[in-house]
Automatic annotation (TrEMBL):
The chain crosses the membrane at residues 6-29, 339-360, 404-423, 435-452. Residues 10-104 form the NAD-dependent epimerase/dehydratase domain. One of its GO terms (molecular function) is protein-containing complex binding. Gene3D superfamilies: NAD(P)-binding Rossmann-like Domain. This is SDR family oxidoreductase. Pfam families: DoxX_3 (PF13781), Epimerase (PF01370). The keyword Membrane applies. Keywords: Membrane, Transmembrane, Transmembrane helix. It comes from the Bacteria.
């Protein structure tokens, strides 16, 4: 093999996600040329990767657009981290987990064939590194796992050089999905049902995935091109779900006395998670996640260790490296409260608007008429403001419009307070202090805005 003169360019597809962001951060810190690609990036990611990030809707792109984008990236190695756990409105799981991979493989095959037709047999095909899931295909019980396995089969028979990575329970600096949930559970006095807590749960330090890609890049520079590998990247001796939770509880100073929740509560929570996912939210507790966790996370890292020369970090050591800082503890404690904050604000706005529009309509109208408003105008104002309240609640309910709803709620609350001070000042000293309570509701909406980001 001949050493290549230039360092390889790595394009990370799905770079805004947990694994994609971890890979980009690790490789960039080691001085590699990385191009992060995703549908959208957070403000923090845009600031960190300014001038490098490429924003485009990869999964929804038509084949010609994807082909043009891949060609423009000029990457030697493509790392695909794109995936979806469960169906969402307008986004079936098969589109991200299977169909996109099939289109990507098709594009890469055509690109290789075209280079030969153009009389350039020396142009090397791009190496595809695909992040998949661990486990035996015979145990696949969800659309998520079946579609992931179908994508692996498409890659394996493509004739392209490839490496398929099977990480376990990925634990990274960032908290998202399952890792965010485990952090939150660690500071609550609850244990998972015994049947679930005893399941094998092999941990993968996200940095081990980055190290694996780095080994591949080093081999690429020596001229190696023939890759056909499947690697289970995870600790050698699998932890259990319960031991991971206990390790995080120790690290984050969670309560020592814990109550074991019954299985039906977890099932109910997963069904509630399925329901709110149709509103655009991505709760970590959904039916697919529960089934996949119950199956357990296991694998054999021997091939990966032999081909890369790497040794995985054990689960306990990975968890012990978690920063036990105040911001970690704040996040863990606020994570579950976030859902309660959003939920109570939805109820507050919808119910208050509904009450004023129905059973309390006459009383609400009378407040205005008692202060000099004509009855038709008072009724119109009551109807309009009630509908505005309900609209704000419904806006907060949906993930895409939640921020707008919270901002509108703050603005309308301030308007109510100022209007009351000018028009109906006696309402400020009514026995139940309805207007005084508007201030705390504004603060709660500000807290909702502060914890709204998921990545």
């Amino acid at each position: 093999m001949t050493r290549i003169s230039h360092p390889p360019i790595v394009a990370v597809l799905g770079a805004s996600g947990l694994i994609g962001e971890a890979i980009c951060g690790y490789l960039m810190a080691q001085g590699h040329k990385v191009v992060p690609v995703a549908r959208r990036f957070t403000p923090v990611q845009n600031a960190a990767w300014e001038g490098l990030a490429v924003q485009m809707p990869l999964v929804d792109a038509e084949r010609p657009a994807l082909q043009a984008a891949i060609s423009k990236l000029q990457a030697d190695v493509i790392v695909n981290c794109i995936g979806a756990l469960q169906d969402a409105p307008g986004s079936p799981v098969a589109r991200a987990n299977r169909d996109f991979v099939a289109t990507l493989v098709d594009v890469l095959q055509d690109e290789t064939s075209e280079s030969h037709r153009d009389g350039q047999p020396g142009r090397d095909p791009r190496l595809l590194i695909h992040v998949s899931i661990p486990g035996d295909g015979r145990d696949d019980l969800t659309d998520f796992s079946r579609e992931k396995r179908a994508a692996e089969a498409t890659i394996a028979r493509s004739g392209l050089p490839f490496i398929i990575l099977h990480p376990g329970f990925v634990y990274a600096e960032a908290a998202y999905g399952g890792s965010a949930l485990m952090r939150a559970l660690a500071v609550l006095p609850f244990d998972l049902p015994e049947a679930l807590a005893s399941r094998p749960f092999a941990v993968t330090d996200a940095r081990d995935i980055g190290r694996s890609v780095e080994v591949v890049l080093a081999d690429w520079t020596t001229g190696r091109r023939a890759w056909q590998s499947h690697w289970d990247i995870m600790e050698t001796e699998a932890s259990t779900v319960g031991s991971v939770l206990a390790g995080l509880a120790r690290r984050l100073a969670g309560p020592k006395r814990r109550i074991r929740v019954p299985g039906w509560m977890l099932t109910t929570a997963s069904r509630a998670g399925d329901l709110v996912s149709w509103l655009g939210w991505r709760p970590p507790v959904r039916s697919t996640a529960l089934v996949e966790m119950a199956r357990g996370v296991t694998g054999d890292s021997a091939t990966w260790r032999r081909e890369t020369g790497l040794d995985p970090l054990s689960g306990p050591r990975t968890l012990a490296m978690t920063a036990a800082t105040v911001q970690e503890r704040w996040f863990a404690r606020l994570y579950m409260l976030k859902a309660m904050i959003i939920g109570i604000l939805v109820v507050f706005w919808v119910v208050s608007g509904g009450i004023a529009l129905t059973v309390a309509f006459d009383a609400a109208t009378r407040i205005l008429t008692d202060h000099g408003f004509a009855e038709p105008l008072a009724k119109a104002i009551t109807i309009v403001t009630s509908l505005m309240d309900i609209s704000i609640g419904l806006a907060i309910l949906h993930r895409r419009t939640c921020r707008i709803g919270l901002l509108a709620g703050i603005a309308l609350s301030l308007f109510y307070m100022i209007s009351a001070a000018l028009i109906t000042p006696d309402m400020w000293i009514e026995p139940l202090g309805a207007l005084v309570k508007t201030g705390p509701s504004i603060i709660l909406m500000m807290v909702g805005l502060a914890v709204l980001e998921e990545r």
